[in-house]
Structure formats: structure tokens, C-alpha cells
Design brief:
Organism: Myripristis murdjan
Order of helices and strands: HHHHHHHHHHHHHHEEHEHEEEEEEH
Oligomer: single chain
Mean pLDDT: 75
InterPro entries: GRAM (IPR004182), GRAMDC4 (IPR037847), GRAMDC4_PH-GRAM (IPR037845), PH-like_dom_sf (IPR011993)
Protein name: GRAM domain containing 4
Shape: flat
Strand order of the largest sheet: 6-5-4-3-9-8-7
Number of strands: 9
Low-confidence stretches: 12-43, 141-146, 416-447
Strand content: 5-15%
Number of helices: 17
Keywords: Coiled coil, Membrane, Transmembrane, Transmembrane helix
Distance between the termini: 103 Å
GO biological process, one term: apoptotic process
Length: 589
């Protein structure tokens, strides 16, 4: 910029040789005046003058032509002079503008320096004011402090107390410098409530959160699975060793130290694993999860199916959590008094035992009972489901507790007297002693029924056949029999149930309780169970299950099932269980 300024500055004569623009008079003042200075005329060369004198005077035409030429030359000289003067004025204006720009920059810098200096002075004043207020607060007596000691008499003239007061002020200053930061921490201040911003709904974010939840819950699920395998005696040697060690610790009163030692051992193993050691110990073999597919651009249908899968998992997870919380709430709120009464009596027995028995004996009894219950009783109940439904009190209590939707269904159900036929009107007095018609009460006090009546009567099954716990209310679906041609027989709406030995489909269009349109399939007759997609044009993996049997040419399809995955898992698990039991009982087949 400075080089540019020098070039412009020295393009013509020096600025000092010209009249300053600020001091020059306004051009408008001299435009119409009479004292306008005459324009200088261009001087002619001496050779031209000499030639003109030597030549004879031309005729009149030559004189007129010479006059015109001289006038044109004069006009060109005037234009050249005006152009030079305008260029000079333009250069001066550029120089003035650049100098003005530089001066503005200098002025701005000076103002900024002045503002910084003013802020620094203001900060120093505020700091001194704060120190003064802190000194006053320390010297002032708070309201809840004890009264100050009586004032000392005025110091004697010899100045001994003056020295003591100076020493005391030094000690107070030293204590404030050492402990002032800790005293400041005990000042009561209102708690700041931070408002968390909610993230907008995103399918990618929802999927990532579900994967994070699955990865975070994996250690807990692995621990629970190992405990279940230990209690089920999957590995006989491991369960026997654990049972012997636990009972020995319970006999000598070392249960708590044993659990603490196991926790320390687990943390030590985790440290070694974090350091790079490969240590894998599990009663249940690890199931390798399929690797995630590479992230590519998904189509619209794939994105839609991804959102549906994540929403279904979230729905099932929230539903299970809600069922657990509602059952606990109903247990403590006396929704079913006969169930809460058992808990009430058990708490009284535990309270009286804790008051009368010594803690050592009480701990021994609890430890021995927990070991026998975990290693022996639970294994017997898992092996014999009928015994579990009759004598496993915690299981019966938990499964009998209703949830809030079940309570609403019971409240919205019609009165029982409407279901009693007219022929049984004489036997109404015996309704209080047993379940009403259309219901059958099992050994645990629960009544299994369908919309048409008792479960075993609707499907002509033995009385011990009842729906599994996972499908007590059944799954709403439609049965597609592809062997039939008529529309009424091709598709039937209804409810699907799973028992220990049968698949039962109750048609919603059966007339007057007739079971002709219902379908019962033995699990032993099933040859194949697969997930099925009824309409291939729709996105996703479908909402149907296909069941192949020898009696049908084409597999039966149970479609339009909202909880398809849950139903498939229950059917396939029970089917494999029946096949395994049959194979074990008859090895030749």
C-alpha cells in the first residue's frame, strides 16, 4: 500500500508545488467573476518564426489557412494542458483518500487501546471491591453464630496491645489465605437446574440406541444365563462343585465372604481381560452373533422395515417392563387380597423370626434354604411343570398377579350370570363353590377359557391341556388354508393358542359355539415350521407362520399376526421340546 502511495504521490510534480485543496478558494466563487486569469498560449518555435519572416506574405487564401491551422494547434495545446491538470488533481485526490484511510485505521486502533485500558481499570476496581467485601464478611458476625466476646479495654499507652492486635490480624489473614477456599465451598447457593434438550426423532439414532442397549445389557444377560444353567445342572460337574462349595460356606457362616471373594475374582479377571488376556469361562457356550452388514445406502422399503423392527423390539421391551412394574404395584395394593395375604403373613413370620432367633442361626437357616432352593428345588420344578404349578408358591403368585390391561378386561367383561344357560338356573347357588360354566379352574386357582367356553371343551382336548403362559390370551391371526378353493374356507379369522402338545386355532366365525371350523394340530404331526411372508410386495420379512403337516398338501399359514416373532419362538420351542422328549423315550425311532 505504501509503494502504491509513493507511485501516485510522485506521478506529477510535488504536492508542495500546488495550492492546497483545503486552502484554495471555491471554484464557484470565481466562475462568473471578471478577474478570471487568461489562459497561457503556447509559444512557437524560433525556426517557425524565422521561416515566417523570410517567406513573402502569402495571398489571402494562404493567410486564412494559416490562421485555421494556428487555431487548431492552440486548441490541441489547451486540451493537453487541461488533461494534465485533471490527472494531477486525480492523483492528489487518491493521495488524500489513502491518507484518510490510514488516519481512520490509526484512530480505530487508538480507540481500541483506550477501551482495553478502561476495561482493565474497571476490572481492578471490581477486584478491590470484592476483596473489601470479603474482608467485611469475615469480620462481620453472622446471625446464627454465638455472641461475640466482650470487648477488651482500650489499649494502654505503652503499645503492648497494639502489637497483640497486629499479631491477631496477621493470624486471621493467614487463616483466611489457607482456609478461605474451603469456607467458600460451604456457602449455600440455589441449585441450578439444567434443562436437557431433546433430540428429534431419527430412525438411525433409534437403531443405534437399541444396539447400545443390547450391548450394555449383554453382561447382565450372560450372568443370568449362567445362573440358570448352574441351577439347571447343564454341566453336572460344575453344578456339583458349586453346590458343595456353597453348602460348606453356608455351614461355616462364610456365605458373605464367599460372595465378596467371587466379586474380587471377577474384577481381577476383568482387569486381565482389559490388559489383553484372552480368558473365556462360561457354563453356557457363547453364541456368536451375526456380524452387522456393511452400511450402504438403504432403499425406502429397507428403511421402513428397519424402523418396524426397532419399534417392535422397543414395544416388546417396554411391555415386559410395564408388566413387571404393574404386577409389583398390584401385589402391594391388595388388588387380589388372597395373593397379598400370603406376602403379609410371610413378612410377619420373618419379622418375628428376626426378633427371636440370633442372627447367626437366622443367617445359617437362610443360607441353607437358598442353596437347596437354587440347586435342588428349582431343578425339580423345571423338570416337572405340574409340580411347579401346584407347589412352587413364588411362581404361582407371580403368574397369578394381573396387570392393568387384564384388570380392565375383567372390569369390561359381562356379568357371569349372563353366561349361565337357562337349564342351569337351578344350580346358581353352587356358583360360589366353583368356577362358572365356560371356565375351568386349574390346580393353581386360575381359570382358562376361550370366548366360546372352557378351553378343553372347545377343542375336545384332555382336561390337562391348557395354553402356555406366553399365550394365555392367544394371538389374533387369520388361517389361510391353501388347499381350499372357496373364500369362506380359504381364509378364517380367529385366535391361535399353543399347549404342551397341540396347536389350537379358534375361529371367530364358528356358529353357536360349534367347533367344526376350529383347527387342532398335534405338534408331533408337524413336519416343518417356518416364518412366512404372505404378500411379497410389502416390505419386511412378513407377519405369518407356515405349518406343514402330512394331512395337507400345502402348508397352513397363520398370517396377519402382530406378534409373529414371539409366536414363532413359542411354537418352535415347544415343538423341539416335544420332538426331543419323544426321541429320548423311543431311541429306535
Amino acid at each position: 500500500m505504501l509503494k502504491r502511495l509513493d507511485k501516485i504521490r510522485f506521478r506529477g510534480p510535488r504536492r508542495d508545488d500546488f495550492l492546497d485543496l483545503a486552502e484554495s478558494p471555491n471554484t464557484s466563487d470565481t466562475e462568473g467573476g471578471d478577474e478570471t486569469p487568461p489562459r497561457p498560449r503556447a509559444s512557437r518555435d524560433p525556426e517557425e518564426l524565422r521561416d515566417a519572416a523570410a517567406d513573402p506574405p502569402p495571398p489571402a487564401e494562404l493567410q486564412a489557412g494559416a490562421g485555421l491551422l494556428s487555431m487548431a494547434a492552440a486548441l490541441q495545446d489547451d486540451q493537453r494542458l487541461e488533461t494534465d491538470s485533471l490527472n494531477e488533481v486525480k492523483g492528489h485526490l487518491e493521495i488524500a483518500l489513502l491518507e484518510k484511510h490510514f488516519l481512520q485505521e490509526e484512530l480505530r486502533k487508538l480507540r481500541e487501546e483506550a477501551s482495553v485500558e478502561a476495561l482493565r481499570q474497571e476490572l481492578e476496581r471490581e477486584r478491590g471491591r470484592r476483596l473489601e467485601l470479603e474482608a467485611r464478611a469475615l469480620t462481620a458476625r453472622p446471625e446464627d453464630s454465638p455472641p461475640p466476646p466482650p470487648r477488651a479495654p482500650p489499649p494502654p499507652p505503652n503499645g503492648t496491645d497494639g502489637r497483640g492486635q497486629t499479631w491477631f490480624s496477621r493470624l486471621q489473614k493467614w487463616l483466611y489465605e489457607r482456609l478461605g477456599s474451603y469456607i467458600e465451598d460451604f456457602r449455600f447457593q440455589p441449585e441450578e437446574v439444567a434443562v436437557e434438550t431433546e433430540e428429534p426423532l431419527s430412525a438411525k439414532r433409534l437403531t443405534e440406541n437399541m444396539r447400545r442397549l443390547k450391548r450394555g445389557a449383554k453382561p447382565v444377560t450372560n450372568f443370568l444365563r449362567n445362573l440358570s444353567a448352574l441351577s439347571s445342572w447343564n454341566s453336572v460337574y460344575t453344578s456339583a462343585i458349586a453346590f458343595i462349595i456353597y453348602m460348606n460356606a453356608a455351614w461355616h457362616g462364610w456365605v458373605v465372604p464367599m460372595f465378596l471373594f467371587l466379586a474380587i475374582l471377577r474384577l481381577s479377571l476383568n482387569y486381565l481381560i482389559a490388559r489383553g488376556w484372552r480368558i473365556q469361562w462360561s457354563i453356557v457356550p457363547e453364541v456368536s452373533e451375526p456380524p452387522e452388514p456393511p452400511k450402504e445406502e438403504l432403499t425406502v422399503s429397507e428403511k421402513f422395515q428397519l424402523v418396524l423392527d426397532v419399534a417392535q423390539k422397543a414395544q416388546n421391551l417396554f411391555g415386559k417392563m410395564a408388566d413387571i412394574l404393574e404386577k409389583i404395584k398390584n401385589l402391594f395394593m391388595w388388588v387380589q387380597p388372597e395373593i397379598t395375604q400370603k406376602l403379609y403373613v410371610g413378612l410377619w413370620v420373618a419379622f418375628i423370626s428376626s426378633c427371636l432367633l440370633p442372627y447367626k442361626l437366622l443367617g445359617f437357616i437362610i443360607g441353607v434354604y437358598a442353596g437347596i432352593k437354587f440347586f435342588v428345588i428349582d431343578w425339580v420344578f423345571r423338570s416337572c411343570p405340574k409340580l411347579r404349578r401346584r407347589f412352587d408358591t413364588p411362581y404361582v403368585v407371580w403368574t397369578s398377579l394381573p396387570t392393568d390391561p387384564q384388570l380392565k378386561e375383567r372390569a369390561a367383561a359381562p356379568p357371569l350370570s349372563r353366561r349361565v344357560p337357562a337349564a342351569a338356573a337351578a344350580g346358581r347357588g353352587s356358583l360360589s363353590a366353583g368356577p362358572p360354566p365356560g371356565l375351568r379352574e386349574d390346580e393353581g386357582g386360575r381359570a382358562y377359557s376361550t370366548k366360546r367356553g372352557a378351553f378343553h371343551e372347545v377343542f375336545n382336548l384332555p382336561e390337562d391341556e391348557r395354553p402356555l403362559a406366553v399365550c394365555e390370551n392367544g394371538w389374533r391371526c387369520c388361517l389361510i388354508n391353501r388347499d381350499r378353493k372357496t373364500p369362506t374356507d380359504y381364509i378364517r379369522n380367529g385366535v391361535l393358542y399353543v399347549t404342551e402338545n397341540y396347536l389350537c386355532f379358534e375361529s371367530s366365525s364358528s356358529r353357536s359355539g360349534s367347533s367344526k371350523r376350529n383347527k387342532v394340530i398335534r405338534l408331533l404331526d408337524v413336519t416343518d415350521v417356518q416364518k412366512y411372508k404372505v404378500l411379497s410386495v410389502l416390505p419386511g420379512s412378513g407377519m405369518g407362520i407356515s405349518i406343514a403337516t402330512p394331512s395337507t398338501q400345502k402348508p397352513l399359514v397363520f398370517g396377519a399376526m402382530m406378534h409373529r416373532d414371539e409366536a414363532f419362538d413359542a411354537i418352535f420351542t415347544q415343538y423341539m421340546k416335544i420332538v426331543t422328549m419323544t426321541t429320548a423315550s423311543d431311541p429306535e425311532t
